[in-house]
Amino acid sequence: MKNISIYLTVFILFLTFVACQNENKKTNDPVEEKVQNLLSQMTLEEKLGQLVQTNYGGEPDNWKEQLVNGKIGSFLNLSGVEHANELQRIAVEESRLGIPLLIGRDVIHGFKTIFPIPLGMASAWSPEYAEGAMAIAAREASAYGINWTFAPMIDVTWDPRWGRIAETSGEDPYLTSVLGAAMVKGFQGEDPTEDGRIAACAKHFVGYGMSEAGRDYNTTYIPETKLRNVHLRPFKAAADAGCLTFMSAFNDLNGVPTSGNYYTLQTILRDEWNYNGMVVSDWASIEQQIIHGYTETPKDAALSSIVAGVDMEMASRTYDNLGELLAEGKITEELINERVANILRVKFKMGLFDNPYTDETYQNTRVLTNESLDYARKVARGSMVLLKNEEQTLPLKKSQKVALIGPLTNAPHDQMGTWVFDGDEKNSITPLTAFTEILGNKLNYAVGLEYSRDKSKAGFAAAIAAAKKSDVIVFIGGEESSLSGEANCRAVLNLPGIQDELLNELSKLGKPLVLVVMAGRPLGIGEQIAQADAVLYAWHPGTMAGPALTDLIFGDYSPSGKLPVTFVKGAGQIPLYYYHKNTGKPTDPNNMILIDDIPRNSKQLSLGFTSFHIDYGIDPLFPFGYGLTYTTFEYSDVTLSSNQLAMDGSIEATCTITNTGNCTADEIVQLYVRDLFGSITRPVKELKGFKKITLEPGESKVVSFTVSPNDLEFHNGEKYVIEPGKFHLWIAKDAASGEYEEFSLDSAI
Ligand code: BGC
Questions:
Q1: 80 shares a domain with 172
Q2: What was the pLDDT predicted at 60?
Q3: Which of 9, 70, 126, 218 could, after both became Cys, cross-link 46 (CB 3.0–4.6 A)?
Q4: Is 215 exposed, middle or buried (0-12, 13-18, 19+ CB in 10 A)?
Q5: Mean pLDDT value of segment 199-205
Q6: pLDDT tens per residue across span 299-317
Q7: What does residue 446 show for φ and ψ, rounded to 5 degrees?
Q8: Closest-CA residue to 452 (of 495, 494, 417, 516)
Q9: Ligand 1 centroid to 541 CA: how many Å?
Q10: What's the chain's average pLDDT?
Q11: Same domain as 384, residue 239
């Protein structure tokens, strides 16, 4: 708070600049003209009303009066299109200025048709699916009068303990940026006024994914270089994609709560990026600055956030103090005008003034359509990752007798995953339903464990009996949906309950064992993976989990998902991510002495001095980008059009991929680059591009990527730089494979 008067002075100067800019815009920007015109008619009370976002459920019943008096700008958690229309009607027809409402809701991975959790969707590495799925989510949500979602969540995380990893696109800033921008496009379309579109919200700004110990809401410390090179990148991409709103986060960042953080909200978002959308706080995060120990009173908290750059306050009511702060001269009316303008601009851009109501028949015609369900099945199929397939255990034959066992075999609620407010489990098609349809009486079903944390062995005997009379065992286990998501963090990354014991029993039967994992996070389950012959990581696949799974298990399609996050062997390896630094003593994988091999009475020096754990070594359980198919792909002839890249030029990197197996499959081809020397140390690899191709057996395709100097930019703590020097380049199937080619970036133009 000590710096607040400095910030205020800087801010007032900035506002003068903005005001001049707005003057200029007045003449040539129709939206800006409407915003300024409306603003000029508003009383202070009406302006402050626009900054309020009320939780519908928690509000006292005088909301009608508040709406008539223009005291609410937005609702969240409101359900029912009739309700939405009624509230809009009061706001539009009964309030003095008729300003429509933003009606927000967490539509995270689907509305009624539930798609895989975002981490699952990210495993498809498909901007096309991300956009298509969110377009369906938007169309369904808008049929219920919702015009704003709090998605995409584009926090980058390295921590599978963090429950909210389920909501992310994983560990990589590039993949998260591409998918985040695609989701923004899916929600908003090219033109957010189009029928069926809703406003998107890039959240949580910023750094929330680094919550210490993977414990939700925890403190974050992120140096400038990491903030810029990792965490801000997806948000910049979302801003560039036209994302209409941003959400400030819960975490304190380097000692300053992100909902009162002038540096991130004003200096970076507004001044550097020229973002003119609106910022909403996360739930009561303005008020929580008091609990953080950053501000003493609700009034201080309001001052901190209004100055830093939060336009709308979600759930708490500290902004009720803004009138007083204005009267005391602590803030100016120009500052309030700017905050209100940011909100009105979104309402105009969404076309809400022209079209505030929703056709109430849409709720019957636009949700859970056959097309939406087919699309959800396709996306779920694309999101599952084949981690292991010894001796081609998969695909199974439809003539085989299959034992279907495990707590997620028939869990219509849990298969939808976290953050599902509107999806209904009665629409879920479970694996049990899908397997039964295909196998009829060749299916031997026994759940074994009722739910993922079940510790009763009562079902073991029936499960073992079912397995004994079958040709193959399919065990579907993992985590219930409530074990991931907000606040639901874990310190142990195992299969909960006694799933390991049941798997152990099943593995002794000498039958092929297929392990399917439905979970909200990457689990460190190396032992269970070792026991299984084939492993399919399905995340929480959503409404169409069953059919998507049988599509793959019975070989109608080949798995094509790739991991968007490194799998650790156990929590002790965290953080482990592929774009780490080399260190001064990198591991030599051929020269590691692990704990059981250390001779007794060894002298310290005899073990070598490199960077690894003596119990886990250095490798992950599975690397970033990893995923198998039912065929095999050979990568050959990685070629660069030149080994010299000019500062004003580009080079083409190509690679031939051949399907050397015997079924048609998709492959996600990945481009990585390493900058060998820099003004700060550089990661050992960074993803710079990817392409999905489909190859028939025997077919080859040449995949090509363009690399230009802009792709090599990074922030060195002082500024963004593109530094000449040597680079390595890989075109590979994952972050741990392939041979590199070398090129140089020349300083001369
Ligand atoms: C979450 C946000 C969410 C908001 C509204 C908060 O607790 O952190 O991601 O959008 O609630 O439901």
A1: yes
A2: 58
A3: 70
A4: middle
A5: 98
A6: 999 999 999 999 999 999 9
A7: -155, 120
A8: 495
A9: 22
A10: 95
A11: no
Which one-letter amino acid corresponds to residue 388? Answer: K
Predicted confidence (pLDDT) at residue 5 exceeds the cutoff of 60? no
Structure tokens at 40: 């000029």
Instruction: For residues 262 and 387, state if they share a domain.
Output: no
Look at residues 287, 334, 328 and name the one whose alpha carbon lies nearest to residue 307: 334
Q: Give 642-670 pLDDT, tens digit per residue.
A: 999 999 999 999 999 999 999 999 999 99
Task: Please determine, for residue 445, whether its predicted confidence score (pLDDT) is greater than 60.
Answer: yes
Which domain range does residue 66 map to? Answer: 2-362
| CATH number of the CATH domain containing 381 | 3.40.50.1700
Annotated catalytic residues are: 282
Burial of 557 (0-12, 13-18, 19+ CB in 10 A): buried
pLDDT digits over 661-697, tens only? 999 999 999 999 999 999 999 999 999 999 999 999 9
Q: Are 393 and 258 members of one domain?
A: no
Q: How many domains does one find in the chain?
A: 3
Kindly report the number of other CB atoms within 10 A of residue 39's CB atom: 18
For residues 263-278, give the mean pLDDT.
98
pLDDT confidence of residue 733 = 98
The answer to whether residue 406 sits within a structural domain is yes
Name the domain boundary from 553, 582, 610. 553
Final residue before a domain boundary, out of 510, 536, 553: 553
Contact residues for 674 (Cβ-Cβ < 8 A; gap 6+)? 682, 683, 684, 685, 686, 727, 728, 729, 740
Given the CA of residue 203, which atom of ligand 1 is nearest to it? 9
Percent of the chain with pLDDT over 70: 95
Mutate to test the pocket of ligand 1, among 150, 155, 203, 314 (most ligand atoms within 8 A of CB): 150
Q: Which atom of ligand 1 is nearest to the CA of 150?
A: 10
In a domain, 578, yes or no: no
| 331 and 466 part of one domain | no
Confidence of residue 603 (pLDDT cuts 50, 70, 90): confident
Question: Is residue 82's pLDDT more than 50?
Answer: yes
Residue 331 lies in a domain: yes
| Cα 643 from Cα 429, distance rounded (Å) | 53
Clarify whether residues 539 and 417 are in a common domain: yes
Q: Ligand 1 — pocket residues by CB below 6 A? A: 106, 150, 203, 282-283, 486
- DSSP E strands, 277-418: 278-280, 313-314, 385-389, 402-405
- Where do we find the tokens 């105009």? 348
CA dihedral 481, 487, 490, 493 (to 10 degrees): 40
Do residues 245 and 353 both lie within one domain?
A: yes
For ligand 1, the distance from its centroid to the CA atom of residue 708, given in whole angstroms, is 38
Which of 137, 156, 129 has its CA nearest to residue 564? 156
